[in-house]
Amino acid sequence: MIQKDPSNKIINLAKCIEKRNRTAQVLKKKNRGGKTRVIAITSGKGGVGKTNIVANLGYAFSMLGKKVLILDADIGLGNLDVLLGLAPRYNLSHVIMGQKSIKEIIISGPGKMKILPASSGIQELTSLSQDQKIKLLAQIDELIDSVDILFIDTAAGISSNVMDFSVTAHEIIVVVSPEPTSITDAYALMKVLSLKYSEKCCYLLTNLVANAQEGKEVFRQLNLVANKFLDINVDYLGSVVFDEKVTNCVKHQKIVSELYPDTLASRCYNELVLKIAGRRPKKLPQGDTNFFWRHLMKDNFV
């Protein structure tokens, strides 16, 4: 039997650590005196890997020393905790029903990131009233001064829950896969954001692509019709390539960035972290959806 040289693993690990340290230094320079950022990650269609992206981005940021809080805003069908192999005792349903405070349901995830878990299988919570949303956002607002980044993992689709959680954020990232149905539904989502919620910009992130070129082609197609028919500016954030290790990690309820930090998908997440850290929100708060904006505006970040 041929023995594999263990030094290769040591060298690869050393390179990975060195790269992570360099990335941390860049983030430190770009975010010196940085303020809490609220980023909504959404999609027109389910099954595009949105929650996996949220979990891996959150983990990648936390590994760079950032305090990360993730809100599972798929209130009635939350699965972030399942993806991470967690079993929370309480969730957002207990907060909405007035049984627990928001601080009492926070759980810890991989990389020390904090998570606000959603409930699963409660139909009444899939369409919250405006009063319920305002009360929930007000409680979350009390938390975010203690974190650097709040990720909002919305449900898929164009329901009022999805839209209302999305437009409260400083930035909206729309996740799309190369499937025609995903592209069509992503356009529908952008259409609603533009026409009914007066959103002027969003970012597009392509997932499950064969390579970077395919991701750019998906963006080209969407951007072409958005420019022609919608009053919304779509910026390309980047792509995450299809990686079999991601599928393996999902089965074992682990994060690919944690188990395989040097695999293709993990490298994509590291690149996305740098891009997100290097960009500032372009939009201003719309209408009465001003939650979270004071956390940027009070220090002239915007």
Written overview of the protein:
Helices cover 43% and strands 17% of the residues. The longest helix has 24 residues, at 7-30. It has a single domain, classed as P-loop containing nucleotide triphosphate hydrolases (Rossmann fold), CATH 3.40.50. It is globular and about 50 Å long. The protein has helices spanning 7-30, 50-63, 80-83, 92-96, 130-141, 160-167, 180-195, 212-229, 244-251, 256-259, 264-277, 294-297, and strands at 37-43, 68-73, 107-108, 114-116, 149-156, 171-176, 201-209, 233-241. The protein is an alpha/beta fold. Strand 3 (107-108) and strand 4 (114-116) form a beta hairpin. It has an 8-stranded mixed sheet, with helices on both faces. It contains 12 helices and 8 strands. Mean pLDDT is 85; it is low at 26-34 and 298-302.
Topology of this protein?
Blueprint lengths: L6 H24 L6 E7 L6 H14 L4 E6 L6 H4 L8 H5 L10 E2 L5 E3 L13 H12 L7 E8 L3 H8 L3 E6 L3 H16 L5 E9 L2 H18 L3 E9 L2 H8 L4 H4 L4 H14 L16 H4 L5
Parallel strand pairs: 1-5, 1-6, 2-4, 2-5, 6-7, 7-8
Antiparallel strand pairs: 3-4
Helix pairs in contact: 2-11, 7-8
